[in-house]
């Protein structure tokens, strides 16, 4: 496996041209700013000129003195001041305006990404500049095996497929997977006619008994001394919050050592987009249609992860593929907790087919659902309480989120006000719970696994030992 | 692989992988501009099919499985991916 690099991304649609990034850059670097905000093609739009750290850099090719060089470890194109002869050829070679000239000293100046913590990104008030950490995740997990076959028949842009593949990549081969009826087995992960789409042992329980069957499997593995196996479910919201809820609740109450991942696409999407307990208020579904009298679902969604916190699970968290780093960290903690007790991960999964959104906009919808507090990201442990992993402050109004999604197209101002009120109410409750919990810094800085000091210590060596055998 | 002691009529146990080629669903094809790609892996991170493959200085796609959803082109922070119609291909 090769290597990928973190990168400064720029979203032109969010930039208001304030120039704070340029001020911060020249302050941090002492001299001319390495980033420039320039007027775009249309009036009122802006573009950046900043070194992109190209894969095949033209500036390096034209440099006659070898002062510019790409570091293949971190991807940064470095500039060696002692070798530079100030010919400025690189500024002409770069098609992106990525190399600036510091006119006070008549030398070139270029971005070095501030050692992985760019000053420009930190001050950007609109979020137009973003330091993308996808490279770090790729370097860590890109070489790990994708535990599903390449051809699964999820719809174009299916977010559940993305969640499955990343989750199993992280969890690895030492696992037994249950996929109750829904899109996840439906797209071919369980398979039929003697064929399977999953490279780990997978089975298809009933919609109602997933957590019960997993309890039995975990107890069997415990009995034969295989404590290294992750016993887990990838279930939809129907199989978790409605039909399967009694089994989930019971397994959580008994403290079964199971990892339960709920992929919440807010309805029974596999069978034709019927409403479920987690379908939000106002949503169009095939059983809450929009017509002269009915205007979508008339009840609010149940907050399933919050219900699971009331079960005193070892670990409960909400996650979204809009924030992948956060998702990977939570998977880490959820796996660890599943060796100690019930571990529940609720991942929001926009459905391009059932929600009426273009397939290409799914990740944007994920991000906006979090940024508008529609799906706040938090985690809970039975000892440390609740903490936000994404700040719920400065959220976008809910209208920014619902306008992206076709199933909300019919909403009246009254319905929108209702949704906004419910979102605010939910965040206020979560904030109360977070305020009652120990300080977030303590929870955040503790080393992994220390939330269950005695248990985690003892389970970890046992797990490694067995894995070696 | 043969499974002994499992009667044929008891329950089906899969012994082979599914071999569906989802690439033939595609209406739009992602094309990478190799000069613009900086290998930030954003496309790999968000590709639902995980059909993004790494090359020496850029990322490319396995067109046998790419369904053409366009997430990679939408998310690429360096606008290095564009979607073209298969017919124009």
TrEMBL record, chain A:
Keywords: Oxidoreductase. It comes from the Bacteria. Residues 449-461 have a biased composition (Polar residues). Coiled coil: none annotated. PROSITE patterns: 4FE4S_FER_2. Residues 438-469 are annotated as: Disordered. GO terms for molecular function: oxidoreductase activity; thiamine pyrophosphate binding. One of its GO terms (biological process) is small molecule metabolic process. InterPro entries: 4Fe4S_Fe-S-bd, PadI, PorB-like, THDP-binding, TPP_enzyme_TPP-bd. It holds the Pfam family Fer4_11. Residues 42-73, 75-104, 110-134 form the 4Fe-4S ferredoxin-type domain. PANTHER family: 2-OXOACID OXIDOREDUCTASE (FERREDOXIN), PYRUVATE SYNTHASE SUBUNIT PORB. This is NADH dependent phenylglyoxylate. It comes from Paramagnetospirillum caucaseum.
Automatic annotation (TrEMBL), chain B:
Keywords: 4Fe-4S, Iron, Iron-sulfur, Metal-binding, Pyruvate, Repeat. Coiled coil: none annotated. The keyword Disulfide bond does not apply. The keyword Iron-sulfur applies. Pfam families: Fer4_21. Residues 28-56, 57-86 form the 4Fe-4S ferredoxin-type domain. GO terms for molecular function: 4 iron, 4 sulfur cluster binding; metal ion binding; oxidoreductase activity, acting on the aldehyde or oxo group of donors, iron-sulfur protein as acceptor. Gene3D superfamilies: 3.30.70.20. Its cofactor is [4Fe-4S] cluster. NCBIfam families: PhenlGlyoxDHPadF, PorD_KorD. This is Pyruvate with ferredoxin oxidoreductase.
């Amino acid at each position: 496996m090769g290597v990928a690099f973190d990168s400064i991304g720029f979203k032109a649609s969010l930039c208001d041209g304030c120039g704070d990034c340029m001020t911060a850059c020249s302050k941090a670097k002492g001299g001319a700013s390495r980033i420039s905000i320039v007027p775009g093609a249309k009036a009122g739009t802006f573009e950046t000129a900043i070194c992109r750290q190209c894969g095949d850099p033209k500036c390096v090719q034209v440099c006659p003195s070898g002062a510019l060089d790409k570091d293949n470890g971190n991807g940064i194109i470095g500039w060696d001041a002692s070798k530079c002869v100030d010919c400025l050829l690189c500024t002409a070679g770069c098609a992106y305006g990525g190399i600036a000239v510091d006119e006070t000293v008549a030398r070139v100046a270029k971005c070095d990404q501030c050692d992985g913590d760019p000053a420009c990104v930190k001050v950007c008030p609109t979020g137009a500049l973003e330091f993308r950490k996808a490279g770090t995740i790729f370097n860590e997990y890109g070489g790990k095996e994708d535990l599903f076959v390449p051809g699964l028949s999820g719809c174009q842009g299916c977010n559940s497929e993305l969640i499955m593949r990343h989750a199993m990549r992280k969890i690895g081969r030492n696992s037994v997977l249950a996929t109750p009826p829904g899109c996840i087995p439906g797209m071919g992960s369980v398979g039929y006619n003697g064929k399977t789409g999953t490279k780990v042992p997978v089975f298809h329980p009933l919609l109602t008994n997933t957590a019960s069957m997993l309890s039995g499997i975990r107890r069997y593995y415990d009995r034969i001394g295989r404590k290294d196996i992750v016993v887990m479910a990838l279930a939809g919201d129907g199989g978790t919050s409605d039909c399967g809820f009694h089994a989930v609740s019971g397994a959580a109450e008994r403290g079964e050592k199971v990892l339960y991942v709920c992929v919440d696409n807010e309805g029974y999407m596999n069978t034709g987009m019927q409403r479920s307990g987690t379908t939000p208020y106002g949503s169009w579904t095939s059983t809450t249609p929009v017509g002269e009298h009915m205007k979508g679902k008339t009840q609010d969604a149940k907050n399933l992860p919050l219900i699971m916190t009331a079960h005193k699970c070892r670990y409960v968290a909400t996650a979204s593929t809009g924030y992948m780093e956060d998702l990977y960290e939570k998977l880490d903690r959820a796996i660890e907790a599943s060796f100690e007790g019930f571990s529940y991960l609720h991942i929001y999964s926009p459905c391009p087919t059932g929600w009426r959104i273009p397939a290409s906009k799914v990740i944007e919808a994920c991000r906006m659902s979090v940024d508008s507090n529609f799906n706040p990201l938090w985690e809970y442990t039975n000892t440390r309480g609740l903490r936000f992993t994404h700040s719920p402050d400065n959220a976008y109004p809910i209208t920014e989120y619902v306008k992206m999604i076709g199933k909300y197209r019919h909403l009246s101002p009254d319905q929108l006000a209702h949704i906004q009120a419910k979102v605010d109410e939910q965040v206020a409750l979560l904030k109360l719970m977070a305020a009652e919990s120990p300080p977030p810094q303590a929870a955040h800085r503790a080393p992994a696994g220390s939330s269950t000091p005695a248990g985690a210590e003892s389970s970890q060596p046992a797990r490694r030992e067995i894995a070696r055998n | 692989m043969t499974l002994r002691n499992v009667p044929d009529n008891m329950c089906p146990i899969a012994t082979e992988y599914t071999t569906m080629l989802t690439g033939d669903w595609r209406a739009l094809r992602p094309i990478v501009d190799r000069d613009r790609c900086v290998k930030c892996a954003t496309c790999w991170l968000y590709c639902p099919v995980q059909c993004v493959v790494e090359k020496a200085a850029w990322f490319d796609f396995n067109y046998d499985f790419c369904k053409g959803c366009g997430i990679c082109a939408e998310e690429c922070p360096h606008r290095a991916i564009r979607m073209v119609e298969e017919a124009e291909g």
